[in-house]
Design goal:
With about 425 residues, the protein is α+β, with helices and mostly antiparallel strands. It has three domains: about 25-175, Adenine-n6-DNA-methyltransferase TaqI, Chain A, domain 2 (Alpha-Beta Complex), CATH 3.90.220.20; about 180-235 and about 380-429, Bipartite methylase S protein (Helix Hairpins); about 235-380, Adenine-n6-DNA-methyltransferase TaqI, Chain A, domain 2 (Alpha-Beta Complex). Helices cover about 35% and strands about 20% of the residues. The chain has a four-stranded antiparallel β-sheet. It has a four-stranded antiparallel β-sheet with strand order 16-23-20-21. Strand 12 (about 160) and strand 13 (about 165) form a beta hairpin. Helix 4 (about 135-140) packs across helix 7 (about 180-220) and helix 7 packs antiparallel against helix 13.
Length: about 425
């Protein structure tokens, strides 16, 4: 970043208007940029689903407008979809509901499908004839440049079904900036190029994850053997090799409350939720979870359809809700890391689905202790277990490195958006 740009940023942060810039309603922008109303660049769409379209879309932070079937593996929409709004590729929808990274709702274009339908709670719109570069505004929305305006007219604390109380009239009367068309096109080109870099990283990660999943199906079942190993595997029930932990946190011996998530594994609850949500006065009834212990969380999710089993690798002893099942491996013929990966395999999923009872709560697996610990696990000799676990550990390290690279590319795009979409850095065709 040049000294000139740094000076410009400092000036704008202090409310000063640098040479070549002007102050408008939404902030400080280049003098060549115009300020107009949202309705000048976009027109409202209220086209109802008269064709019987069943591709119900939802807004995802990562995937944009995506089919509920693709995202949730099921539709959560009402049976009667005639009142839903019909969208075509390139048209936009605004979800007024708060989500992570979108404090004032998300505005997304439809790019993944030719058409789809969205809830009538969404505000839908498309580019007008005056809007020659809707791709620029897709980036403008993603960069949060509408947040200032939405915050100004959204009624604080007034929500309907978790939605910001924003009228359609206020939304379309909000201010928006219009750079010269060549600059719009260049900004869109730069940011779209960075999007493609991010997409390639995501595809590489997905492919690595697919390869790992395939290897798990082969190696954890003995369908494929590692070189040098040929002996028969022996099956043990979980109850034969593990002991259920029922030790309670009597006298408040331990204060570290742990959480078990599908995404992050076992971590301090304060890290998972940015705060402690357990009542510290009641954690004497929580189970003690030593380092190396396994924990099963019966809560199901998209990423953990049977609930996650993870190992406490924090290096510390903590406590967990008695809603969880805690157990320790007590057989020196069994490697913890091998079992860690087994509990993420299709074998584990099939068994749990076969013995579970969904009738109690739809968001939790209901499995008796007897069924849980009767689970048969095929186990090779210890050295083969360790070799198999090492292969998956290496794959995890490669995926983790790619994910770090992905985050760096996302941060790079965020920085570009902050500079280009505000006009702090100017580009020309």
């Amino acid at each position: 970043m040049t000294p000139e740009i740094k000076q410009r940023i400092d000036a704008i942060r202090h409310g000063d208007v640098p040479k070549g810039y002007k102050k408008v309603k939404i902030g400080i922008v280049p003098t060549e940029w115009e300020e107009t109303h949202f309705k000048t660049m976009f027109g409202r769409l209220n086209r109802k689903n008269t064709t019987g379209n069943t591709n119900v879309l939802t807004i995802s932070a990562q995937h944009g407008l995506i089919s509920q079937e693709d995202f949730f593996n099921k539709s959560i929409a009402s049976e009667d979809k005639s009142n839903y709004f019909f969208l075509k590729r390139g048209e936009f929808a605004y979800n007024k509901s708060y989500s992570n990274g979108y404090p004032f709702g998300a505005l997304k274009p439809l790019v993944a499908y030719e058409s789809g339908i969205v809830s009538p709670l969404y505000i839908c719109f498309s580019a007008t004839r005056e809007n020659k570069c809707p791709e620029y505004y897709a980036q403008y929305f993603e960069g949060g440049l509408m947040n200032h305006e939405i915050q100004a007219f959204a009624q604080e604390g007034a929500r309907n079904h978790g939605l910001l109380n924003i009228s359609v009239g206020d939304f379309f009367n909000s201010a928006i900036v219009v750079p010269p068309l060549p600059e719009q096109q260049k900004i869109a080109e730069i940011l779209t190029t960075q999007d493609k870099v991010i997409e390639l990283k995501e595809k590489r990660i997905a492919e690595k994850q697919r390869q790992k999943k395939y290897l798990m199906q082969q190696l954890l079942t003995g369908k494929r053997r590692l070189k040098g190993f040929s002996g028969e595997w022996e099956s043990f029930s979980l109850g034969q090799i593990a002991r259920k932990v029922t030790r309670k946190n009597i006298s408040f011996e331990f204060s570290l409350v742990l959480s078990n998530s599908a995404q992050n594994g076992i971590v301090p609850q304060s890290d998972q939720f940015d705060k402690d949500i357990a009542n510290v006065d009641k954690i004497d009834g929580y189970y003690v979870v030593e380092n190396g212990s396994f924990v099963y969380n019966p809560r199901i999710s998209v990423t953990a359809p049977c609930g996650p089993i993870n190992v406490n690798c924090t290096g510390k002893t903590g406590v967990m809700s008695p809603l969880y099942t805690v157990f320790q491996i007590e057989d020196d013929r069994v490697d913890n890391d091998f079992l860690k990966y087994y509990f993420k395999s299709t074998c584990w999923f099939r068994y749990m689905k076969g013995v579970s009872n969904y009738g109690v709560r739809h968001d939790r697996m209901s499995v008796s202790d007897n069924d849980f610990f009767d689970m048969l696990i095929p186990i090779p000799e210890l050295l083969e277990q360790k070799r198999i676990a090492k292969i998956f550990s290496t794959a995890d390290s490669e995926i983790s490195l790619l994910q770090q690279e992905l985050e760096q590319e996302k941060l790079k795009k965020k920085a570009l958006m902050q500079l280009l979409l505000t006009g702090i850095v100017r580009v020309s065709a």
